[in-house]
User: Fold these one by one.
Assistant:
Number 1:
Amino acid sequence: YAAKQRNSGAVTYIPEIDKSSQQSLSLLSELRAALDHNAFRLYVQPKVELGTGRVIAVEALVRWIHPERGFIFPDQFIPFAEQTGFIRLLTRWVLEQAATMCSEWEARGLHLKMSVNLSTRDLLDQDLPNKFADILARHKISPESFCLEITESAIMDDPVRAQQTLERLHVMGVDLSIDDFGTGYSSLAYLKSLPVDELKIDKSFVLKMEQDLDDAKIVRSTIDLGHNMGLRVVAEGVENKDVMQLLREMGCDQAQGYYISKPMPAEHLQEWVMKWVPPEYSAAA
Ligand code: C2E
Ligand code: MG
Ligand code: MG
Ligand code: MG
């Protein structure tokens, strides 16, 4: 790809930059096309109440089925969607789909709290609370059925505006959750000042906590911290029975992870719930 020159000869395109900005442009148009052609899929992953073993909530996780590249995980397009602002459209799509599923489940007698991830851009979107209220009203869903997950870094970006958006969402009656807790900065200051209901311990502390004593100590302290602040505590990244049992003994409220189930297409959830059998724990050591 040859460097181009403008009339004056003064402007020289640097090939790599040119190429990457072209790729960005085409990725953005592919994302837009994906919305138009229904190429996003709503996946959900169950959350289990540790005390009872019941499935009481799910987290919505988006996937992209690309016509040529196939199945694409969110890590490969969410950051780009955030940079370009496309995330606002995607978030609305996810909220709409999540509300649709929620009301279908309700109609069939399955009551589950639905968690949706928000990103930095969403927290700066002044229209979001009204748009969300409108979605809930159209689907006749009470705000208490929803939980919005926010990361510490998303709040960090513009704490003042983020707090305003969060306050508006919270007065609607929606639950708010701090996601990936422990990986960002100033976690404790946010816990004190934000209207939060739930804290999700990041999977990096949970994955190997049955082997790593330091991880186990961090998880235990985080559960206690959350409870002392009056919050519900959820552990993500539960991959085996030992971790599930440890969390239960530590008094953690809910668990989410591959040991229970990997994320699945939302339409499969009800059948999965009907087959779910909670683990039998061994006698406490
Ligand atoms: P997250 O919100 O922290 O979601 C949890 C991630 O951990 C999910 O990855 C889930 O599949 C994965 N996970 C759950 N249990 C286990 C486990 O036992 N072991 C391991 N190794 N991983 C587990 P996923 O679906 O690839 O999503 C990655 C991230 O992308 C999410 O992290 C979230 O930050 C973002 N994301 C996903 N969907 C959306 C969305 O609709 N909107 C926004 N803004 N972000 C989203
Ligand atoms: Mg999350
Ligand atoms: Mg998380
Ligand atoms: Mg995480």
Number 2:
Amino acid sequence: AHEELPSTDLITLTRHVLHDQLRLGADETGDLTLLLTAIQVTSKFIATNVRRARLINLVGIAGETNVQGEEQKKLDVLSNDIMVNALRASGRTAVLVSEELENAIIIEERYRGKYCVVFDPLDGSSNIDAGVNIGTIFGIYKIRPESKGTLEDVLRPGREMVAAGYTMYGSSANLVLSTGSGVNGYTLDAALGEFILTHPDIKVPARGKIYSFNEGNSMYFYPPVISYLNSIKYPKTGTPYSARYIGSMVADVHRTLLYGGIFGYPDDKKSKSGKLRMLYEGFPMAFLTEQAGGLATTGTKRILDLVPKHIHERCPVFLGSKEDVSDVLKFYEAHNQSGA
Ligand code: P6P
């Protein structure tokens, strides 16, 4: 049989974002559209390298040479270089923050634009050798008025982001994006080299039946987390939740957005601020979750209201279905009221 032919009315990411820009009104200069196109290209490039890595063992450690005798770059280092170069070359960025770089990059005058991009180029990369889904996570701030691009442009609450998204590299490449008016999912059609709209207007179910925590940290969990988990594992009525934990944030969040339930990486006695990074893991995933009708909290504060003091600051994360996250908040409130 013939391969499924695409409909004649293909909604590509570029077309969909352009439509968004037109909807946003004339004042949009197309800069965000161009920036998102640059990000789209990096996702395609990284997807190719991730797929190849599994074939020719590209994932060796940095410093070794491969069969061609080339300097071997770890996939996350390579992905970082791909993103930094493409974002700089787009001429639409002023400040870049990467999980791979100790310091922020301030783009030189010649290439400077009006957006700041914070990103984890290959989150979950420790899972590559096992063939587990990994991903690129990004968040975008518009530069503050009159600013030439400084750290202050990214040390801002997540609620000031204008866009956020991730690309998950698995059996296919899925790009999930919000520019502030809902969440859409696109799947890479490698033959066309285009991301095609496959999940329009993603909405997190009000409640799910899946919880996603690394329970290997249970001995360090604080009481509200232990009480919450017990309430869904040993429910007084109904059936227990299912446990699903992939250990790759993009994969765990993607499932949570589509199926509902809750993903959590709380702060505990071992990780005082949790493990996940505020700027380029917490904020983008919280932005997407809220845009999809869910909630994202630290347990005591809305994640998007946090203000990072430095670019690699960590924060606790509970995100997902509104009702499931509200249940966690009840245990934190009860705990705080008891003052225990
Ligand atoms: P743990 C991957 O290393 C990562 O940064 C996230 O993608 C993932 O959610 C988390 O860490 C997993 O951490 O401690 O459960 O292995």
